[in-house]
């Protein structure tokens, strides 16, 4: 990641945390996630196995045309369709025949297929 992007992402993360009133401090996140041993988690996250899996997943995503995160491939009725961005979750729900149950569900204009 280029340093400029990291700086922007850090700022954007803080803005979103403030807007949604969600704490982003590591101890609070770990506690909410029920992580009991943060040292073990940090050790595992920096292990060669995890780094290798991340590289494999990244290479696979790039080969599929990924240009950002989150990147998802959804399989439905024999088709595979790519989606980028969490704001596409209502469309994914529609594609797989489920109603989106997110915070802006009242704005949806279609029903599941």
Would you count the extended β strands for me?
Answer: 2
Query: Averaged pLDDT, please?
Result: 86
**Major sheet, described briefly?**
2 strands, antiparallel
Q: What is the gyration radius calculated from CA atoms? A: 18 Å
Q: Secondary-structure element sequence?
A: HHHHEEH
Beta-strand percentage? 5-15%
Give an overview of the whole structure:
This protein is mainly α. It has a domain at 67-113. Helix content is 50%, strand content 11%. It has 5 helices and 2 strands. A hairpin with a 2-residue loop joins strand 1 and strand 2 (79-84). 0% of the residues are buried. The model has no long low-confidence stretch (mean pLDDT 86).
Give a brief description:
Residues 37-92 form the DSBA-like thioredoxin domain. This protein is mainly alpha-helical and 113 residues long. The chain has helices at 3-20, 26-32, 38-45, 48-63, 89-95, and strands at 71-76, 79-84.
């Amino acid at each position: 990641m280029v340093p400029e992007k990291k700086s922007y992402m850090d700022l954007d993360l803080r803005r979103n945390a403030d807007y949604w009133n969600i704490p982003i401090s590591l101890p609070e996140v770990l506690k909410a996630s029920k992580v009991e041993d943060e040292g073990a988690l940090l050790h595992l996250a920096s292990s060669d196995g995890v780094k290798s899996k991340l590289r494999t997943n990244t290479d696979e995503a790039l080969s599929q045309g990924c240009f950002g995160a989150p990147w998802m491939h959804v399989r439905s009725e024999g088709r595979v369709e790519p989606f980028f961005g969490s704001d596409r979750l209502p469309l994914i729900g529609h594609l797989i025949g489920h109603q989106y149950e997110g915070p802006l569900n009242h704005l949806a204009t279609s029903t599941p297929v």
